[in-house]
Design a protein that fits this description.
Layout: H1 2-38, E1 48-49, E2 58-61, H2 69-79, E3 90-94, E4 98-102, E5 108-109, E6 111-113, E7 115-118, E8 120-121, E9 128-131, H3 138-148, E10 157-162, E11 165-170, E12 177-178, E13 180-182, E14 184-187, E15 189-190, H4 191-194, E16 199-201, H5 209-219, E17 228-232, E18 237-242, E19 249-250, E20 252-258
Parallel strand pairs: 1-5, 2-7, 8-12, 9-14, 15-19, 16-20
Antiparallel strand pairs: 3-4, 4-6, 10-11, 11-13, 17-18, 18-20
Length: 259
């Protein structure tokens, strides 16, 4: 009987231990399930196409800037600083044109063509200007400059005199031109002021155009290479005029011949 009681007692203890083990295992399994349910699935980052970023790709540079990839990239970042862009995954490359390109296809894909504009300095235009004395003023100089250089006709320009030199500069924002130009202004001479003595001695009153012109050029050597025209005004008076192609001289005057 004593052995039977010991056996039953041992059997009961084993059953209790087994129940406890099963219970622990079940609880652990439930805890693992709860933890798995609470864990969020790992997010997979999808690469974005650069076309979807709405990047401003038009960049205008001053004529004084030396354009290269680095300066374009920096200016691009500045123009698009309000956008959330991972710039360290991008770069500017040059082929026939400049492009913004991805250096990590896991972050960004594709390329974008950039519109790069560099202004022209107006100092490339014609500097020489031939003006009458009365035309040497700010407004007239600007008007003559625009006539000589129609490309800047619509630009707002400023003209001022500094140290005996006349300077024209661009004073409005535009995509095409900037800078300034130092002009070379030559004062045109009125033929009437050059020919101060308007009487010429001739062998005959009935002269010829070529003879009259020769008389004038002999008396005024500075006109030796200038194209002049002489037209008979009356019996002994001739009208002398400067050809329109001449730059330094202009105008007309009357001269008289005497024997």
């Amino acid at each position: 009987m004593k052995k039977l009681l010991l056996f039953l007692s041992s059997l009961s203890a084993s059953a209790i231990t087994a129940i406890n083990i099963i219970g622990c295992t079940t609880n652990q399994k439930n805890e693992n399930q709860n933890e798995n349910q609470n864990e969020k699935p790992e997010e997979v980052e999808i690469a974005l196409n650069l076309d979807l970023l709405n990047i401003q790709t038009k960049i205008i540079f001053s004529s004084a800037i030396e354009i290269h990839e680095e300066i374009i990239f920096n200016e691009l970042k500045s123009l698009n600083q309000d956008l959330e862009i991972k710039w360290n995954y991008l770069s500017v490359i040059k082929k026939e044109k400049y492009y913004l390109s991805s250096i990590d296809e896991n972050i960004y894909t594709g390329t974008i063509e950039l519109e790069i504009i560099q202004k022209n300095n107006i100092n490339k235009f014609q500097q020489e200007m031939y003006l009458k004395t009365a035309e040497v003023n700010e407004q007239s100089i600007i008007e003559n400059f625009k006539t000589l250089n129609p490309e800047v006709k619509e630009l707002k320009l400023l003209c001022k005199k500094e140290n005996e030199s006349w300077i024209i500069s661009v004073i409005e924002e535009n995509e095409n031109y900037d800078g300034f130009i130092i002009l070379k202004i030559y004062i045109k001479k009125d033929i009437s002021d050059v020919i101060q003595d308007k009487t010429f001695k001739s062998q005959t009153i009935n002269s010829h155009e070529k003879i009259v012109v020769k008389l004038i050029k002999t008396k005024y050597p500075e006109l030796a290479d200038i194209k002049l025209k002489a037209i008979l005004f009356n019996k002994n008076t001739w009208s002398i005029s400067v050809d329109e192609s001449e730059l330094i001289y202009y105008g007309n005057c009357l001269v008289q011949l005497y024997v």
